[in-house]
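Hi again,

Forgot to attach this to my earlier email, sorry! This is the prediction with S-adenosyl-L-homocysteine bound. I've pasted everything inline since the attachment limit keeps bouncing my files.
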Amino acid sequence: MKALEDSYLHKGMRESLINSIREKGITDELVLKAMMEVPRHYFFDKAFVRIAYEDRAFPIAANQTISQPYTVAFQSQLLQIKQYDKVLEIGTGSMYQATILAEMGALVHTIERQKELYLATKHFVLKSKYPSAKLKFFYGDGFEGLPTYGPFDKIIITCGAPFVPPKLIDQLKPGGLMVIPVAQDAHHKMLRITKQLDGSLSEEYFNDFSFVPMLPGTNSNPTK
Ligand code: SAH
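Structure tokens for the complex follow:
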């Protein structure tokens, strides 16, 4: 069961979390404001309200994790979100990252390969604030993207990719940005790809992060 009360206590915990993320180097006020606005504990079971406000990753259903708040902030900052940006996210997971992007004004399309997690999006507790015009959920394989909904201004991958999926590059608009953790030894290095107006690509590498792996195909078996 989710905890659906947002009290001063929760807001206080959220404020400390945002302060610690700011101290770790996040400067984009739009990102910090969105993370202050969205009650992160709504994405956790009731027993884990305090953990929701610690800067760490945490297990969710289907053996997956909700990303660490700092990681969410870092990827969101790299995306340079503008109002009405059309965004594709690979790896819906808990829906937290997708909600942050929607709160920042993006029109979010998010794909999940674990059926159990996709089915949970039907009960998204903030649906009235972020209706499907702002945040759309899909069940599918992120390696394929969403060709019928693209191209996208921004693409964010929230699982560790073995390589940059070529179909996602195709679905990025000229002038668009992709933020993707790409495998390098035991870690994933954060990579930002810019598609120039002439279609050529430029790459910038950032810190190492750890992510659950980006896997091909879909999985409808809740025990795997
Ligand atoms: N953005 C999420 C992070 C979840 S962890 C959040 O805010 O909670 C990464 C998620 O990526 C997992 O749920 C995993 O099942 C999913 N995933 C892995 N490979 C995928 C693929 N090929 N297509 C879509 N989702 C994928």
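The longest strand covers residues 172-184. The mean pLDDT is 95.

That should be everything now.

G.
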